[in-house]
Amino acid sequence: MADSSVNDRIVELVRRGDRQALGRLFEQFRPRLRQFLRVRMDGRLAARASESDVLQETYLDVSQQIDEYLRNPRVALYVWLRGVASQRLQKLARRHVYAERRSVSRERPLPAASSAALARQLLAGGSTPSQHLCGAEMRHRVHAALANLKPDDREIILLRDFEQLSNGEVADILELSDSAATMRYGRALFRLKELLKQSSSDPESPL
Hints:
Layout lengths: L3 H12 L3 H22 L2 H4 L4 H21 L5 H20 L7 H4 L4 H12 L11 H13 L3 H12 L4 H8 L3 H24 L6
Helix pairs in contact: 1-2, 2-4, 2-5, 4-5, 7-8, 8-11, 9-11, 10-11
């Protein structure tokens, strides 16, 4: 993604009504929005619409709403774009998928690299049997442990470790202070680590 000064110049062009600049601005954030969709897109919806389809519809929504955002930008630009993408995803889900809600970690496989990195972070230096688990098994246990967390804990881990948002962005999305977001994230990681240690030490664990 381009640095903030480049984006600021593009935003100014958009503010002046340059629609081509809006396209360039959206492209700067496309990789992050695609990562958001990889984490959040319901597997049943993914069978009917691709990430590119959702991004295309999101861009149309952005083009209709950007002027209103620029008049009163209450959150960072990416946080707003993510919110527009989230609304589009919800509309598509209502259109294509039954209203049944289940844990996001069971709707679609979460990114493998993020799962592996999180497992290494939480279990580094330990002497648990998790050291001997293969990558696929460890990812499975991460996903299962996430599904067994409380919703608030699961949500902040998905935001930080799978969508790879900054603490400030997470604070904006959850409407928390930066310090409160940091504390919630730390508590959630601790609880997830305890679940992983428990499941790794107990072969009969449902995780």
